[in-house]
Input
Amino acid sequence: MMRKLITFIMGFILCPAFAMASVPKTAGDYEIMMDALNSRGGVSTAGDMSLYSSIGQSADNNALTSTTYSLVNGFMGVIDELPPSVDLTNPIAFSTQSGTFDVIGTAYDRTDTQWTIYLAPTDNSDPDFLESLTSGSGNVAGHTFAQVDTTDYSGAYSVYIVAVDGRGNTATGSVAINIDHSITISGNIPKLEWIFMGMSAQPDPADPLTIFGASNDFKIFRWDPELEETQELKKYYSPESLAPGDGFWIRAFNSDIDYSYNAHPTETTADYTISIKPGWNQISSPYDEDYIWGNVAVESGGTTYSMEEAGSAGIINSTFWNYDNDAASGTESWVPRGEFDIMESGVGCLVYAWESADLIFDINKAASRPMARIVRPVEDYKINISARTDDTADLYNFIGSAGRSAVEFDPGDSPEPLATLHSRYTSVYFPRENWSKHPGNYSADIRPLARRTGDRQEWTMKVETTEAGKLVTLSWDSSAIPSDRFSFTLVNISNGDRVDMSAQSSYSYIAPAGGVSETDFRIEVVKLYNEEGQVTLTKTLEPGWSLISVPLEPEITSALEQLGDDLPLLDVFQFFDGKFYPAESADIQAGIGYWVHVADNTEIDIQGVPVAAQISVPLRKGWNLVGNPYETSLAWSDNITFSCSGQTYTLSQAVDEGITSGKIYEYDGDSYSAAEQMSPWKGYFLKAYSQCDLIIGR
Output
């Protein structure tokens, strides 16, 4: 934030045109009559001179020998160097503010002034935290510039005024304050039901007895992956205090608990950090508002990763889990969430890590949509398998075949969530104790794409339940099975039953009696024939840098696999979210632009399927690299649309709404120029002023 403010101010201070000595000033630009100049072009230092201002007013003053002068139409002009006068009289310095407060002060200059009021954390230099409250022009004194609602702020802040006169002279003033207010958090905990909650503010005081009432009969537990496991509680413990970002289980015993407690909002002056350890971690959004999981940064070993990067690096599983407490309808179960999903305020989240790391929450990114390099995931299929008894269920377990997946562990695989505190349960998982990396039980096991007729994949699966002797039903969506390309067979290993999963959507059996029941299954998937419609297109690149796109949707998106045989040095870069990614991190997809460098004329080939009649390309605020996804040229006009916050706009409407600049720029090997159409195999720069989707159609 403060970098923005400092840059803004320093831009005026360092600009050579204004780096001049200070002089007294009573009006605008002064001019001295030509006959006051001596033979050397200087000014006599003796006596009084007749001075004429730019508006014709005269005054008698001694000449100023230290002043910078310039000739103006036969006169020698004295440059105005004095900054405006600024002052803030409210809020009072170092006061504590809550509710709404006025920003009152003065901005004055004899040549008039333009002013802007900012709010920024006092000790934070991150430009993202700088907020412009209001701006205007004209001389004002005792003026109410703005009213500030403190609801969304907490911590040490400063109010800044920046004023600029007609010559670019700049003045700043500031007042340091503390924003501290209390919020009330309330809710209900139903009797005899474990609720997985999250702490979204700093309770005052922080002990659970004060928060939920000392007279109530309840238990609170948190999971600590570093604790020594016990038979009774495993790694659960009862916390003595709760802090923002803590996830926890709570259960009321004798009656429902209606709770209401005071808390201070989590400070918004800096990022908030939650430390996680190898194993399962119970966390939550640390703010009294929702937070998109994919916007959480991960810091490990001195390096900061995006959530996508941390998942690919095997630091953390990029899936988090909420618990569905709808026991009445039999849907009580862990629910997986992805990078684009919301961490709801006050709701517990379960996260698995393979390494110690810090989760970094930036309040300014809470609601912005994250963006992945693979904008449209490439999948053969992804099938959800659920298991249910009359009273228990495990509803979300996945097998799948997708691009950039591996036979063993890959970022698309998710560990089986830890045991809850419920006495009864049903659990489905894929035992993978034989994996060389991150062995264990998994709730999702995604394999590589099947590329040849007869390719076979098998998933061993275990169903575990405390409901021995009762009916257990496995379910899946048969309509999601691509039966024209694959056969799916469910095998009950214990009795040999075989089920065509495309012909029916469930299979039931009686859980074996005696303690916790375990039944082993196998899912067999066989590719029936090669994909139809796969084509290979070629393009010859001229020496040097080219900005390209591809008129196909590759099945394998990896730049290393698509272009590695054509470009031995593989100078390929993908640009998104303000960063460049080299070939080993790049994914080739239709609708995206890429930088490619070749030393000589080089023919590249891309394999994939023709692009659908319409595709969507996510755009970030700022510059984006986009491309033509088709083999024919496309006009850059109102045939192009933008989807923003549920609304669709034509290109001209998007320009009018301030969504985009409306222009695309191509690179001709030497410079950039605006383009009127999108040509095949070419990439373009496009500027967006907000997050949205670019919709490209034939």
In short: Residues 1-76 have pLDDT under 50 and may be disordered.
